[in-house]
Amino acid sequence: MAGSYRLFTLETWKNWDKSGKAEVVQMIKQQLKDDPDNPGLSKPNQGKDLSRALYELLSAIVRGHLRRDYARPLLTDMINWHPDMASQLVEVSTLLDLETSTIDRLSRNRDQLMALLKSLDADKLVKERLEIETLGEGGIVKNKKNFHTKQIKVKTKLFYKQQKFNLLREETEGYAKLITELNQDITDRVTPSSIIQVIRSLIGGFNLDPNRVLDLILESLESRPEQHQFYTGLLNQYPCESATISELLGFKLNNCSSSGKDAKGIYTTMALLIQANILQLSDIYAWLTPEDSSMTEDYHKEENEAREIARKVHVVSTKDKDKEKEKEKEKEEEEKDKDDQRNHEKYKSNQKIQLCIALLKVGAWEHFVEISRRFPDYYLVSSPPVSQELCQLIHATIEPIYRKVCTLPSRLKGTIVELLNNPLAPRPSHTFNDVCTTIFPMLSILGPHLYHDPGLIYKVLRVARVALKQVKVATDGVRNTFYYDFLDVLDEALLPSLSMLDSNPCLAEEIWETLKIYPYQHRYKLYGRWKNETCTQHPLLVKHRARLLKKAKFIMMRITKETIKPVSRGIGKLTHNNPGPMFHYILIQVQLYDNLIGPVVDSFKYLTSLSYDVLGYCIVEILSENKDRIANDAMAISPWLQSLSSFCGAVYKKYIIDLGGILQFVANQLKAEKSIDLLIMREILDAMCGGELLRREAGQYQQERNTKRSSIRLKEALLENNLAIPLLLLMAQQRSSVVYNQTESPHLKLVGKLYDQCQDTMVQFGSYLFQVVTIEELNDRLPSIGALLSDCHINADVAFFLARPLFIHMLNSKYDELRRQDKGEKKLTLEQKKLRYIEACNEVFVPIVSSIRPHFSIKVWEDMDPSFFLTFWTLTMSDLEVPVHMYEKEIKKIDPNPSANKRKKEADRLLALKEKLQEEEKRQKEHVERVLARLQQEKDRWFMLRAARSPKNDTVTAFLQLCLFPRCTFTALDAIYCAKFVKMLHNLKTPNFSTLICYDRMYCDITYTVASCTEQEAHRYARFLLGTLETVMHWHASHTNYEKECANYPGFVTKYRVSRQEANDYVDYENYRHVVHKWHYKITKALVTCLESGDYIQIRNAILILQGIIQRFPAITNLAAVIEKRIEKVKVEERNRRNDLYVLANSYSGRLKAIKPNLMPETEFHIVPKRPQAAKAVNGTQENSHATSGNESKSTGETAESKVAKVGDVEMVVADSTNGDVDAKDDKEDKEVKKADVSSKSSKDKKEISEKKLTDDVEIKKEEKEKKEKDRDKKEEREEKSRKRSKESKRSKYEDEEYGETERDERSSGVIERSGEQRYIQYVINFNQDGTT
User: Which residues does residue 1326 pair with via DSSP β-bridges, in sequence order?
Assistant: First the structure.
């Protein structure tokens, strides 16, 4: 009334007769039509409703805007329009009464309101709802006091006075009829509406108690729960409240619990009423026992007990083990029995658990979730009855989709699960989306307790497998919801449920069939949570894990080679269902005891596929731990890593395990610049890689059979995970940086070992890839040679190692293409094939030469042509030489003739193999001839004619620096290749290439080369030196060999003539022998320097190189004596200090002594010039010292020709670094002393010589004393000279000990005079390009 009109206006009341009345009637009737059931109910966000229209109508009458007599007929008619209309009018009148009595400005309209109330024909309703003061004021009640008294009496009688209804034992007719009506057969004619009318009639006719009637309806529902839809519909219409029903059901539960009766039907009734929202869960939950707090305490108590059991597993007992085990078994059995009894009683007496069971049975899933949220996770489902009922609910829900996608053969009839006959239960799943929305949440709530129903696990896995196979990957790599939701199901339910079972390998295989659809990244994440988190969250899983570890310890204490069979069965049983903890313990034992590797690997033969995959994860997990990988003060790799690496190689080879995880781990470590873990990769490669035909036949016939399958598995893992080329490139990059970025101040021994490991693994891995991966696959993945050199920052040796197979493939393809273009392809002669091959080389290599030219300095190409650089790096050993003796050896081994012990099939195989080897040898010979023809054509442009500004030895330096040295230490085969390549350059008579200068630069001073090598590089460098020494000594062995292979060769030119009419000068045979002797001396000097350095790396490398070249060096007795003395010194110094050096030295010493009788004296090695006659010593001075100095000064004026005339020998050929000449000269600092053969002397001569020596010593001492007295003022100068002499003595220590050991012994015997130091006369012959000497 206080508000303005919204539905009508003042014009409506003014024009009442004309249009106003019709407008009001139309509005009210429209409202009744829109909502005939609840016409007076106001609706939100709706301005027009019946209550508002009536309010504005009556308000207009009270305000006086509309005359009461005009509106009275309408009000009278309106009461007949709807049964509730009178009630609505009274309700509005009540509101107007409140407004007029409380608002001052409206109080003047109260009389109008009283008159209106009198005019309404609804006295009964008005008396019920209006206040007593209003009724008295309006004259509706004559006496307010009497009316109030009467009202109190009626209410007391109605609400507080208990009436005596007829009970069942007193009068049965009404209840009998009621029971008959409630329990009759339910047909279409029998509906809740019809029965509720009957019930009302019976209550009214027999004056029945409504609460007792409600109780009978509940008992009828309890006895006939299958008709729950009828009874719940009936209760929806019966006037009762949820609190009343909860009181009745709570009273029944208490009665049943006290009397011990079964209350299963009552719980079912509760569940049905809760599901139908007739009974509120909060109302009935208050009646249930026990309290939530006590249930939570029981859970925490069980959790603490499980943790205590897990703690005791790691406690070592010192008591009698046998008695302790018996006691433990008895305790376990007692606890198990107590648990079973306790659980049975607990579940039966726990009303809340019983209600949860009933809720799940009727399909009230949401209400069960509501209860479960009151407790810790998985507490309710830890009760077996609850989890079993939930499994049955999931069975009923998944049945349609399971029958749809997992059909069984017609002869097999699976168990059909009946669907729930309840529209309020979860809807059955017909699509995979339904499975995600309905079944997956149930499985997550069920968790590890899904183990109670293994059949359900199979159903879920089979449905999921079909769904996952149909999952499509979007353009952005994302899959649908099912793909990711099922990962949560695996994590929360399926895998933990597997752990709860005792031993079920079939279920483990079924899980693997579904799980393997996911990549290893998802699988490993699941395994990590399963092993480290899930098993520690549930008390039951904690107990299972503790028992498993006990059994694991028991088994691992008994594993040996003899007990593999029984132990393997035990390990298989323990790992079928919970492999993670078992493998973790086994791997810890393997790290501690490497002798367990073999037995443990053999005992894994009974594992499931899932267990193998978990084993791969456990290996990666342990490797990922932050453990120290370096031991012994950064001098060696930790033993645990070595043991684990060996275990990896053995287990990955023997069993089918996904390699993706371990390969990605190695790649990640390489990205982090940690090359130590390459040890794992190397062990895997050693175990899983195979070889080529010739190498296979040269080795064991079993080799390929053992590695073929594992090799294929490794290849597939590399390609599937796209790790083949990235791993190779990471190894190459790590090889270059391992020296600088490995660890802080590591020992050089460890750095060298890591470098060798990186190098060897890279070569082995690259060789493996080139064997098993097709060239097309490599070509698609491998960067170009230019990108390798620039973008990937890889050295030339590695870049060409990677690109060489592609170049060879390109060349062969082009050669085959050119051959096919000829009509008579099969009739081509060898010369024609050579031409085609040369043509193919030109077409293929010209673009490659252009691509590599910018990546090197321009100065490099001034010394050599890029085509030579490419030729050197693209050729291999098989291009230069055919191993004829190896082919012949293997062919001789094969005996295809059948025998009694040889089957015909085997004989045929051997015959075919023999033919293959012969054909392969033939093809190889043709190929070598083609390569040599190509090299013969290209050799003229390899080295440019040197100008005066650039000496010839720069060409050799560039060749050694960019080609020879990097490749000779790359692999052992490359070392041999380098030696053969130098010989090939010589044999081809390559212009502008000096063989002598090349060999001299190799042998000149190898000290720094030896000192900078790692252990494996030292081995390879020794192979290279051995190959070159074999060539050198072959020419040295006989004059015939030298004349045939060296004389008149450009590599041995000593004088280049500008005029073509004059012939060049060459080194003759005897001068060459002098040169070879000088090279042997240089090698000896360098190696002895390393042996005397005291540095571990230099001593080790020197001995390794000596061992590697022992077939050709030392070849001279006096050099061997010098080396032997240094080796003995190393043995003495390093014994009990650095035992590995002692072992090396001792090994070489034995080998050196074995070859000592075969060595030749220096006089046989080359012609030794005669020494000048020793000067006589008189009074401690040399008589002919002045003459000697005069002769020396005189001899300086002699020409080189006069020197040659005197001696005729050339001792050494070296390259002058200041001009383009080739000098034949000796280093003036080098001193050589000839070991003289001394005949036996008489005792008298020896005595005279010794007396003379003693006299000389006395005279020398006197002279020194006199000089000290006279020259005191020059003391500082003499001290300086003394220091210089000490330095010189150290520098010449090698020469003195090298050649003078025997002479010192002879001097002491008086054979050689003290002042008679012998040395070679140094002759130098200069050969200039202009022909001058």
Answer: 1223
